[in-house]
Design brief:
heterodimer; A: 409 residues; Cytochrome Bc1 Complex, Chain A, domain 1; 2 domains; six-stranded mixed β-sheet; five-stranded mixed β-sheet; 15 helices; 44% helix; 18% strand; B: 411 residues; alpha+beta; 11 strands
């Protein structure tokens, strides 16, 4: 696979990134618009969830039905997401349909109808999704965790807050689209089978608009409470916990990723072995690294029946603490080969590659090649991980529980 | 891409799809056993056994197994359904011999009592976890209601009570009966040396004794009954509808897939326009599932409990219109485009290729290339889909719903 990232900046400032892949017939693209939850005006939490539905309810010369029919007719596998920093629209498709798909997305971004009556339907769906979260405590606990862990407004929940969603109006939402869909700060990434020059020419023509100034970053406020319990008549206690870590830009990033992998990257990892395999305290337990541009943490989830919850929590906490005592050579070797394998296997998917290069560019200001990541992982050894862990302790947690009873933190 | 096949003397079949340009390789042991092969006394044993297969052999402890997989960076796991238990791993090409050897050995596990007793707790935690996932719980209970005495209604997980009373000896007996060589297909794909894979499997699995693990299969039209259960903690109404459809052995399954997409794909389908676009329900989707000798069309709808009756009236109208007028040429073409691009994308990933390859052989004893599947989808006509609607009438369904006590249950 070519390990080279194509890059071009449109006249309007939008960054185009590409990664050509051999032996594939599909192409995937992702457009990241600077309209994430942290950038929403106060009182509009959840607007992103409404917008991603509303903009598809008619655009350009097509009404809602015609637009969806046109996208489905091209066989697009569509997705949308709202993160702290971006609203993202993505598609995977057979490469021969790329040009037609881009025409449709230009209409959606530049010429959405945004009718007020359709807004009410999008809002009702967003409210219904938020209500449904009560029937999915595992998902709810993690959204609540991020909200309390990150300084406000960086952890705002993508699904919104009920009172703010209910008070959102079409005019307010229209204003958010006008300011947030700023293509001068947008990143368009593509991976798979495509011709970069043809793509850039088409995007230049489709998005021939004036350059705008980027919006200022929000000022970080306070993080939330250290422990929150949400009473719920569930079969399990769902525990979410998170502790601070370095961002992806840190020089210690690869040491940290190796340590997280040793903690929870696989079935021989410490959490899986100690919590599930040796003690049978849960079915699901896992920790992962989460990063925003300026803040990062290691989050962990487990769900366990009430009489085992305290022990599960205590064992997880002690495993985080035990990292400071260092790791074994075998653990480092296994973590490195696991990370390298995942990297290569993920790079076989056009969607994950398109997503990965855009994420790199936003977080680091550049795209790492697969070769660079592999070689950075190669330079990790037991002593570098031990040194990192000696300087970093993981004993200060933000904790959320949802279930029939509390735990002692 | 090249297809290869080898059958060991004891009946174990090895198939491979060789793609020298792939960045990775994958292998799976597809065992034709699941909850439909269980008696009530051992309900949940297939899935419990799947967990126990990771606990090692006479030479390997559970921790050593996990370490062995992780040492080669394997992306490995297993899953159990009503009729299959599949063990798989994807690796970089240089580790394919190691992972093949490891799975080949693990297919003859020790099933130790102490491992069994610890893992019982994990299984019970998994059952508790699903109780907090009503969107999955409702599907499981709908299957039980729809299939009734047909074995496809058996729960994959079993219940806390059935797992509590299960013994390690019962599991060992079940294993001996079901994991016999002619009931297992080893499938591999990607960048690999097929002869080397065959040699490793032959060396480790060639001495297994064969016996008869045949399964009785029969078709079921389902009970078409309705039932609603309540749970105070629920906020939304979760509704599952099931109607009969063709089996995996029936060539009309391609038309069934397209029909499922026309009825309830998550965008642009009939249920989408009737219920989701209008914000009557936040989710309304359908999927066709073909199984061994039997099949079903599933729909899942989630909505406000107070609107459940209205939602079901609308859904009823959608199905009635489908039966009355059939599908149009344009919606069939749209469904084909979606299915065809899904086939392309899925086949670019090692696990996507492996699952299709393995299941085709398990059910049909034949190899279907991506081009074969594309041609089969393209050949479906409006008349084919409308004939299925006429024969299986999706407007008559089994309905199971879960919601809070005060909801308007929609029945």
């Amino acid at each position: 696979m070519p390990d080279k990232c194509d890059k071009h900046v449109l006249k309007n400032g939008m960054i185009i990134l590409g990664n050509q892949m051999d032996n594939v017939e599909s192409v995937a693209f992702k457009l990241r618009l600077p309209c994430g939850e942290s950038l929403m005006p106060e009182g509009c939490c959840g607007a992103g969830s409404c917008l991603t539905d509303w903009i598809l309810r008619g655009a350009g010369t097509r009404n809602s039905k015609e637009l969806v029919d046109a996208m489905d007719g091209l066989g697009l596998h569509r997705g949308s997401s709202v993160t702290s920093s971006h609203v993202s629209l993505s598609s995977a498709l057979e490469s021969s349909n790329l040009s037609k798909a881009l025409d449709l997305y230009a209409d959606i971004i530049l010429r959405p109808h945004l009718n007020a009556d359709q807004f009410e339907l999008s809002k009702q769906l967003a409210i219904a999704d938020l209500l449904s979260l009560d029937d999915d405590p595992r998902h709810k606990v993690m959204l609540n965790l991020y909200e309390r862990f990150y300084p406000h407004p960086f952890g705002r929940p993508s699904m919104g807050k009920m009172d703010e969603l209910k008070s959102l109006t079409a005019d307010r939402a229209k204003d958010i689209v006008a300011k947030g869909f700023n293509l001068s700060s947008a990143i368009f990434s593509v991976a798979g089978k495509y011709d970069f020059q043809t793509l850039c020419d088409q995007l230049e023509q489709l998005f021939d608009i004036e350059q705008n100034t980027p919006r200022p970053k929000p000022t970080p406020g306070q993080a939330g409470a250290k422990y929150t319990h949400i009473q719920h008549d569930a079969a399990q206690i769902h525990i979410g916990m998170m502790t601070k870590a370095d961002t992806i830009a840190s020089a210690d990033y690869y040491n940290m990723m190796t340590a997280v992998s040793i903690l929870s990257g696989s079935m021989s990892s410490r959490l899986f072995t100690e919590v599930r395999e040796k003690r049978g305290l849960c079915y699901a337990v896992g920790a992962r690294y989460n990063t925003l541009k300026d803040f990062a943490g290691i989050s962990c989830y487990t769900g366990t029946t009430p009489d085992k919850a305290q022990e599960a929590f205590d064992v997880i906490k002690s495993e985080f603490a035990r990292l400071t005592q260092g790791v074994t050579q075998d653990e480092v070797d296994r973590a490195k080969v696991g990370l390298k394998s995942s990297l290569i296997m993920q790079s076989e998917s056009t969607s994950s590659r398109a997503s990965g290069i855009a994420s790199d560019h936003y977080l680091l200001g550049r795209v790492r090649s697969i070769g660079e990541i592999k070689s950075s992982l190669e330079s990790v050894d037991k002593s570098t991980v031990d040194n990192y862990l000696a300087d970093n302790t993981f004993n200060d947690f933000t904790v959320i529980t949802i279930g029939p009873k509390t735990i002692d933190c | 891409m090249e297809f290869k096949k080898h059958i060991l003397d004891n009946g174990l079949t090895i198939i491979g799809e060789i793609i020298p340009s792939a960045q990775s390789a994958a292998i799976g042991f597809f065992t034709k056993t699941g909850s439909r092969d269980e008696t009530p006394e051992v309900s949940g044993v297939s899935h419990f056994l799947e967990h126990m297969m990771f606990k090692g052999t006479d030479d390997l402890s559970a921790l050593e197994v996990n370490e062995a997989f992780d040492r080669i960076g394997a992306n490995f796991n297993a899953f159990t359904s009503e009729e299959n238990t599949v063990y798989y791993a994807a690796v970089l090409p240089e580790y394919m011999p190691d992972v093949t050897r490891l799975w080949s050995k693990l297919m003859r596990p020790s099933l130790r009592d102490d491992d069994f007793n610890i893992e019982k707790n994990v299984i019970k935690e998994e059952i508790a976890m699903y109780q907090d996932l009503p969107q999955l719980d409702v599907m499981d209970k709908a299957k039980a209601l729809h299939f009734a005495s047909h074995p496809c209604g058996n729960s994959v997980l079993g219940t806390t009570e059935s797992i509590d009373s299960l013994t390690a000896e019962q599991m060992r007996t079940y294993f001996a009966n079901r994991y016999e060589p002619s009931n297992i297909v080893a499938a591999c794909c990607g960048n690999l040396d097929f002869d080397q894979v065959c040699d490793i499997i032959s060396e480790n699995c060639g001495s297994w004794q064969s016996q008869n693990a045949a399964r009785n299969i029969s078709f079921s039209t389902g009970t078409l009954e309705s039932r609603r259960d309540t749970k105070d903690s629920l906020v939304r109404e979760h509704i599952c509808l099931m109607s009969p459809m063709v089996s995996m052995q029936d060539d009309r399954r391609f038309a069934g897939s397209l029909l499922g997409m026309i009825i309830g794909d998550d965008t642009g389908s009939r249920l989408f326009w009737a219920l989701v676009d209008s914000a009557m329900a936040e989710v309304a989707c359908s999927q066709f599932e073909s199984m061994d000798g039997v099949g079903a069309m599933y729909s899942y709808i989630r909505c406000n409990p107070d609107k459940a009756k209205e939602v079901m009236d609308i859904a009823g109208n959608v199905f009635a219109a489908l039966v009355e007028k059939g599908v149009s040429e344009q919606e069939l073409q749209t469904a084909k485009n979606k299915v065809l691009s899904a086939i392309t994308i899925k086949n670019e990933l090692p696990m996507g290729r492996l699952v299709g390859l393995g299941f085709n052989w398990v059910y049909l004893n034949e190899y279907k290339s991506m081009a074969d599947n594309v041609a089969a989808v393209k050949a479906i006509t409006v008349q084919d889909v409308n004939a299925l609607i006429k024969e299986f009438d999706p407007s008559r369904f089994t309905m199971y719903s879960l919601g809070p006590k005060n909801g308007d249950n929609g029945q």
